[in-house]
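Practice problem: predict the structure.
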Amino acid sequence: MKLLINAEEPEECRIALIENGRLESFHVTTVVHEQTKGNIYKGRVTAIEPNLQAAFVDIGTGKNCFLPFSEIHPEYYASDKALQKHWKDLNIQEVIKKGQEMLVQVVKEAAGTKGASVTTYLSLPGRFLVVMPGSDSHGISRKLEDEDERAKLRTMMNSLSIPEGIGYIVRTASKDITKTALNKDLGYLLRLWNETKKRGQAVPSPALIYKDQNIIAKVLRDYYTPDIQEILVDTQESQKQVMDFLKLLPSKQRKTTVRLHQGSRPIFNQYAVEEQIEQIYQPVVKLPSGGSIVINPTEALVAIDVNSGRTAKDKNFNETIFLANMEAAAELARQLRLRDLGGLIVVDFIDMRNARHIREVEKQVKASMKRDRAKVDISRISKFGLMQISRQKLGRPIQMGSYHVCEYCQGRGVTRSVETQSLFYLRRIQTGVVHKNVVGVKCRLPGLPVKVAQYLLNKKREELLEMEKNYGVQIRIEPAPEMTPADHQIDFVKAENGLEK
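Answer:
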């Protein structure tokens, strides 16, 4: 495996993990859409919603954040009596006050008109540990399945000096770790928490208290494994950052070589990654046997449709359909990782009659999802051929950081035909001229397409002349090249006391 880090341009930093020439993980951050997940803010409660049993918190980012009652630590309860009860037996308006200040951490990025989701149960991730201030829970990653390894790590953690009221989770990367490395990581995280707490007490709200590491440090911390044989970077600053990270690792995990890319071709182009990255932004993904999957994210869910393509023309129909579904099962897991799509995902597989084939496809989806860091919950394939997947949102979808809503179609993917758009404006004019005192209409229409204005002036000239004659108005239609198709301006000129206005 190779890890490519492209940080040459100041506006964007991209990181790609490739295995046998195939893109397996992709991360990007831009100056326009900087990630806030993991950041800790000192916020102020601006509203309490008893019906939702939630509060809205101002953290200074422009949109108020959503804070469910279940995510409020008891230390923020206004009443001491409330501490003796479970939050389910309380009402949020009785224990939280408007204007109250609290430290909150972003757990879900803002999306569209919705603000970010936050929690007061803070966590600070390191390479080997996640420290949780204000918690008394201790745990070891479920992905470390070896019982001897888990017992060894548990013994190590019990021998370390951990302050009271500090919980922790031992991360998957702690496999084969030494006690010294664990202690070093713990010491760093405790110092970081003390600094964060002091800053939180000193600054007025709303304010950013702790900012999660930059994308290079974050990806190395969360995704680095000793299986990565080589890390290629295209700037000396990135090279130093990677080298500093590797120095912190135990010698067993330090076998990766770091190389500065100095070729004339860009680093991603050199390793044929650009085409694979571009595919992330396309709705259709081709499968090896000729089928395809179509991915459509919507407001409520992500819909994935599996198409058979030319495989359906083969003689052994059932086997070829099974092959297409198996390929789709593996590819959809990869695409969900690459695009970072979360929430509810509904997959429409091609109908299979063989029960064994159905079970095999379900197994393939579960096996392919094991590489995913996000928490997933997978249903069986229903009698309608649908599978439901619930996937944890690790961040905002990749597409949101690099694309914006089309100014022509407003995200619908289609625009009105010239005839329909022309009739829409004609009806607006007709509705306005029937009002009293209207003596003129000035209609500025989008310049793209100019065909709309031309259609009205040529095909609908008789209707316009008839309106002018019947209502005694003057109608002017002007193409406006600077306007988008979604915009238009129709001004109705009224007469007041015999004068035009």
